[in-house]
Design brief:
Layout (H helix, E strand, L loop, with lengths): L5 H21 L7 H20 L6 H20 L9 H20 L2 H25 L7 H15 L8 H36 L4 H4 L1
Helix pairs in contact: 1-3, 1-6, 2-3, 2-4, 2-5, 4-5, 5-7, 6-7
């Protein structure tokens, strides 16, 4: 376990990553899916409110940062019309499922249940971008996901073993898994291309010539 105050650093790293993604959006380097990023703004903020009610300490700052960061991306996507990624029926269905999960949270109003439904809402919002990152990784930027994954890891390290409750670690664990998946989908194809290009540029050795 590390000092709980490191959760502040985790939140700063997470927001910085989203700010970098928002900058890439403004520069036309990435095209965010608005359904995903709008829901990524809403669901974590609800989870943050639930964590506060449950008495979660500084660890809740990570959840707050995960909600505030995407808000920057949403704003950036409206400032540059070219940054808008075309929505499909599949995106809208995922968005509807996410909203349904948020409504379910409102009907229960219980702390742990609220966090669970917020995770489900966030996950349904995640699916369109997972699909997009798999099909068109060049339309994505990994900065926000790498930073958020680092922030989630730091947050988890601030929780003492005796305090690993669902309220304390449920959302950070989910965020870490989601970010690892997205980062891999975006960066792995680029790494393969870079490796292939390096192999093509390598001068032939004497063994190759012989």
């Amino acid at each position: 376990m590390i000092d709980p105050r490191f959760a502040i650093l985790a939140a700063v790293i997470t927001v910085a990553g989203s700010a970098s993604y928002a900058r890439d959006t403004l520069r036309g380097r990435t095209q965010p899916n608005r359904v995903t990023w709008m829901l990524w703004t809403l669901a974590p903020l609800i989870a943050f409110a639930a964590e506060v009610v449950q008495g979660v300490g500084l660890e809740s700052l990570m959840t707050l940062a995960v909600g505030v960061g995407p808000l920057l991306v949403v704003i950036a996507s409206f400032l540059d019309p070219r940054a808008y990624y075309r929505l499909t029926r599949f995106d809208l269905i995922c968005g509807a499922l996410s909203v349904a999960a948020l409504i379910a949270w409102g009907l229960t109003g219980t702390g742990d249940v609220a966090i669970l439904f917020s995770i489900l809402a966030d996950f349904f919002g995640l699916i369109p971008t997972l699909r997009k990152a798999h099909r068109d990784p060049e339309s994505e930027s990994a900065s926000a996901f790498v930073a958020s994954g680092c922030g989630a890891t730091i947050t988890l390290l601030t929780v003492s073993p005796g305090n690993w409750t669902f309220a304390n670690v449920g959302f950070p664990l989910y965020i870490l898994a989601a970010d690892l998946t997205l980062s891999t989908l975006i960066l792995a194809p680029r790494h393969r291309r870079a490796t292939a290009a390096a192999g093509e540029e390598r001068p032939p050795s004497s063994t190759d010539i012989s």
